[in-house]
Amino acid sequence: MKKWNGWGPEDAPPTPLAYEVIQILNTIFGELHPSPDATLRQALARVPSPKLDNRHLVTTDPEDRLRHARGQSLPDWVALRSGRINAFPDGVAYPSSDEEVKSLLSYASKVGARLIPYGGGTSVLGQINVIPGDQPVFTVDLRCINQLLDFDETSLLASYGAGITGPQIEASLNVRGYTMGHFPQSFEYSTLGGWIATRSVGTQCYRYGRIEDLFVGGHIETPIGQLDIPIFPASSAGPDLGELILGSEGRLGIITRATVRVSPLPQRESFHAVFFPTIEHGFAAMREIIQARVPVSMVRLSDSQETENSLVFTGRKLLISAAHKGIFGIGSERCLMIFGVTGDSKSTRLAYRQASAISRAHAGFVVRHFIGNEWHKSRFKSPYLRNTLWDVGLALDTLETALPFSKAMAAFEGIKDAIRSAGRDIGEVILVFGHFSHVYMDGTNLYITYMYRRSQDPDETLENWKKMKSAASEVILKRGGTISHQHGVGTDHLQYLPAEKGSVGMQVLSSVLKTFDPQGLLNPGKLIDN
Ligand SMILES: Cc1cc2nc3c(=O)[nH]c(=O)nc-3n(C[C@H](O)[C@H](O)[C@H](O)COP(=O)(O)OP(=O)(O)OC[C@H]3O[C@@H](n4cnc5c(N)ncnc54)[C@H](O)[C@@H]3O)c2cc1C
Asked: If you average pLDDT over residues 231-255, what whole number do you get?
C-alpha cells in the first residue's frame, strides 16, 4: 500500500542521506528544525462525517476517504503532513466494470453528487483533490479495472482496463517480449487512464512517443452516454475525438478501457554520460544530436547544480570526490548529459558513436556505461528522496515547461532566477536546479526542482511555495513557454491556461465540457474554472 502522506510503499525504509549530503545541506540551509508530522490517527480524527451515508457502490470508510483526499503536489504534502486537509471525498467507489461506472454516473446525477476519477493519485497539480462545497463528492478509483483485455501481436496493439498501473502493463508485455515504453517517473503508481487524462510523458518518449502517440483508442463512460474512440492506424475523418480525451483531467468522462501501441523489447539498451565544461556546450550538443536525427532513446542535460547533486546524492565516495574536485579536468561549471541507446546491437552501436562524436565536437567528455546506467537504475528511486528531505526539514517541488530551442536557455535561467529572487523576498535560501529532457526537433522541456526550508508553520511553508510558484509561472508565460509540458493543469495552473489557449480556445473548451457533462458532475474546478 502506498504511503498515505508521501511517496513509496508504507513499509519503504527512508532513503539514507550520505554524510557529505547532510554537510552540504547544512551549509546551504543552516541548522534545520523540522516540525513533526501529523500521525495517521490524528489525520483520521479530522475526517468529517460524509454528506451521504454508505450508498451505491461507495464506501465511506474514513481511511479510504483520507487516502484519496490529496495527490502529490507540494500543497498536498503540506496538507497531509500537517494533518490540515481542507476537504475529503464523502466516499470512494471501486468499480470493476463499465456497467458499474455507468451506474455511478447515473447515481451521481440522481443525488446531485460530484465524481472525481482517480487512477494512481500521483498528479501534482491538484487534479484529484476535492473542492470544498455543498454537494457530496465521491472519488471513483479505477484500479480494479486493470486487466489486459486484448493483445494484437500482428498490429502491436494492447488493450487494457484503464486503471492498470505502469508495472502491471510492463509485466503483462515483457513476458510476451514487448514493452509499452512509457516510463514517467511516477511509473510505479500512475495508471494508463491517468496518463491519458493528463497527457503524460515518459523518460524515453523520444523513442516510444508521448502518451498521445501511444494511445490509439478506447472506451469512455460520459454523463451523456458512451464514447468509443475506434482503433485506426490513422484517419482523416474529421477532428480526432481522442485528442479531446487526452488531457481532459477527468472532466469529460471516465476512461474505462484504452488501446495502446507497443514495441518489441529491445535487444540492447544502455545509457551513457557525457560531461561538458558548460551548459551552453551541452545544450548545443543535445540540439545537434536531436536535429541530426541520431536514433538515441533519450537525452537529458542537467545544469551544474543538478550535476553536482546527482553525483553527491549517490553517496558513492568516488563520485562525491569527483563532484568536488572537478571531473576529468572539467571545472565547476560542468554539466552532465545522459543519453540512451536502445535497439539492436548494430543500431545502438551506431547511435552511441554518432552521439559521442557530436558530444566530443562540443568539448564533451564521454564516460561509457557507469554513470548513465546508474541513472537508469535509480530513475524511479529519486522521488523517494522527497520523503527523507521532508523529514530533515526541507520542502521540495518541481515545475516544468517547454519552449523552442531558440528561447529555452534564456527561459531556463530566467525561471531559476525568479525562484531565487522570490526566495530572497521571503528571506529564504532556495536551492534551485534543473535539466532539459524530453527533446523534440524544435525544442525541449525544461524541468526545474527547488528546495527550501520548511517553516514551523505549515501555512507559511505553503505561502512561501505560492510566491515561488507564481514567480516562476509568470516568467514561463512571459518567455512564451507552455504552463505545462507534462503535469497538466489541475487547480494550480488553472489561472494560467487562458493566456495559453486564448479567449476563443477557452470558449471551445468550456462548451465541450458542457456538452459532455451538462450537469457538471465530473471533477469540477479542474482544468477550467467551473
Ligand atoms: C514522483 C512523481 C513523478 C512524476 N513524473 C512524471 C513524469 O515523468 N511524467 C509525467 O507526465 N508526469 C509525471 N508525474 C505526474 C503524474 O504522475 C502524472 O500526471 C500521471 O499521468 C497521473 O496518473 P495517475 O494514474 O496517478 O492519475 P491521477 O493522479 O489519479 O489522476 C490524474 C487526473 O486524471 C484523471 N483520471 C485518472 N484516471 C482517469 C480515468 N480512468 N478516466 C478519466 N480521468 C481519469 C483524474 O480525474 C485527474 O484529473 C509525476 C508525479 C510524481 C508524484
From this structure: 97
Let me know how long the chain is. 530
- CA 417 to CA 423: how far, in whole Å? 10
* DSSP string across 66-106: HHTT--SSHHHHHHHHHT------SEEE---SHHHHHHHHH
The mean pLDDT value for 52-66 works out to 88
527 and 120 in contact (C-beta within 8 Å)?
A: no
Q: Is 526 in the pocket of ligand 1 (CB under 6 A)?
A: yes
Predicted local confidence at residue 176, as pLDDT: 98
Instruction: Report CA(122)–ligand 1 centroid distance (Å).
Output: 5
Confidence of residue 17 (pLDDT cuts 50, 70, 90): confident
Owner of C-alpha cell 440522481: 110
In contact, 388 and 13? CB cutoff 8 Å: no
Please report how the helices 19-29 and 304-312 are oriented relative to each other, as an axis angle in degrees rounded to 10: 140
State whether residue 447 is helix, strand or coil.
strand
Residue written as cell 517517473? Answer: 185
Q: Which own/partner pairs from 348-355 qualify as long-range (CB within 8 Å, at least 24 positions apart)?
A: 348/266, 348/268, 348/269, 348/270, 350/295, 351/294, 351/295, 351/296, 352/270, 352/272, 354/289, 354/292, 354/294, 355/272, 355/289, 355/294, 355/296, 355/299
Model confidence at 356, in pLDDT bands (50, 70, 90)?
very high
Q: Which of 198, 204, 260 to mutate to test the pocket of ligand 1 (most atoms within 8 A of CB)?
A: 198
**C-alpha cell belonging to residue 11:** 513499509
Is the C-beta atom of 168 inside 6 A of ligand 1?
Answer: no
Residues 6+ apart with CB under 8 A from 465: 74, 75, 78, 395, 397
Residue indicated by cell numbers 516510463:
183
What is the reported pLDDT for 347? 96
Ligand 1 centroid to residue 128 C-alpha, Å: 9
Q: What does the DSSP assignment read for 308-336?
A: HHHHHTT--HHHHHHHHH-BTTB-TT-EE
Residue percentage of the chain with pLDDT more than 90: 87
Pocket lining: 487 vs ligand 1, CB cutoff 6 Å: yes
Q: Residue 216: helix, strand or coil by DSSP?
A: strand
Tell me the one-letter amino acid at 302: S
Name the residue at shortest CA distance from atom 8 of ligand 1: 184
- What's the rounded Cα separation, in Å, for the pair 203 and 299? 9
> What H or E segment, with its residue span, contains residue 462?
helix 458-478
Instruction: Fill in the DSSP letter of residue 121.
Output: S
Q: Which of 465, 530, 438 is nearest to 212 (CA)?
A: 438
Establish how many alpha carbons lie within 13 A of residue 411's alpha carbon, considering only the half-sphere containing its beta carbon.
30
Q: Which atom of ligand 1 is nearest to the CA of 203?
A: 8
Count of CB atoms situated within 10 Å of the CB of 203: 24
pLDDT at 18 (0 to 100): 83
Q: What mean pLDDT is predicted for residues 485-514?
A: 97
